[in-house]
Amino acid sequence: MRLRCRVDRCKEGRKKRARFHSANPSPLNKNRGKREQAAKRAGSDESLCRILLPLRRLEACAGDGKRATGAPDGAENEAHPQDVERNPSDMRERRAPPWPKGKFWPQKSESDQRGSALDPGEMRRKPDAWAAAFSRIGDRYMDKAKSQQAGAPREAAESYKHAWETYNFARWPVENSAGKKQAYAKALEAFAAYGRLIDPPLEIVRIPFEGKEIVGYLRLPPNVRPAPLLIGISGLDTRKEDVAANSDGLIRRGIAVLALDMPGTGQAPLKVDVGAERMYSRALDYLQTRPEIDAKRIVVRGQSWSGYWAAKLAYTERERLRGAVVHGVGIHGYFQPEFQKKGLTTREYLFDLFPARSAVYEAKTMDEFLAYGPRLSLLEGGFLDKPSAPMLLVNGEKDTQQPIADLYLMMKHGDPKDAWVNPAGGHMGRSEQWPQRMILDRVVMPWIERALAAPAQK
What we know:
This protein is α/β, with parallel strands linked by helices. Helix content is 40%, strand content 15%.
């Protein structure tokens, strides 16, 4: 199977496609013979994963022909087919080269006419097949890690990380089948093993909460006591493990990290509902008891869907936060049925967007889902004109998953806020010129550092 760029059937379109293929030979066709031999040795599961993993990096075309990224909702990093083939963990570390403008999806080559191409509809109908294919690869990494642990702990850590990444994709975007639930359980096991072997290690914290518990990962920078801290909240289809796995940049800056799931996902004790931010207030209470943490210097960051929770905490926990990064802004229009009906058709998402979005409400039908969301509006809830902690709002003008109008709405109400909008950006501001890593390094991280260094609000 190969990925093709579909363009309009016109003379100019053919020229563009010809120029692209001549200047940029497909990474999937390069060294094809070697890869096919390796796939035969590894088995069909390995071959399948090499086909599917690059889909995290596919890009969709906005209506005006300009490109917007197509990574899963809230995804922190981009991947490239060639990188994934070398090492699955690299999809969280390496930046992909630019793709051409156009709409990408899997199509059958002449040799694939017997049905080997990926069909997102089939993945939707058979979630356990998706989970099983990736989980078998994760199992191999787990076995490898266990064999390495006694004599080569550093290599074992990398193998555990590879296992987690593969299991994590097996359960993506939502654990809505027996196979995906099992994959998530394996992902948690692999990530816990990985967290124990890295330096500094991850601590699993369990905070009593309303007869249940809030589970999070705490990572402290060495030689910084008490340390300022970022509360990182995962998005709709990411989990707290994704936040913790990408904490090295904060640790290098002397900033501790507490990674938490957003309500309705992962191990969160609550579904999404009015008042669910109280679980984060309880986490702030807990942080007050940790002498290694400077409880007066805490910033919260929400990505994609969880930008909502960062924004709400900026109002409800104004006195205890130095700032809030709302990276992906959905606070009013996002919850309206008119937007959701349109947003569920976005080409920025691979598949199962409705199951992922409805699961956080525990809604079973479309009507129930559409009726549930409006109650969460911060405008209707009377929050927007209240005093708030400092906020950084980040998004792209062409985002099809969260309306850019919500960002501008927040700017027009309440205290002054900082904002960064990419005119050519899609979800969370991503574009070819501004990939996710660049936005984090040049926009988000400097703002967090300034917020933690600033004098406390009176």
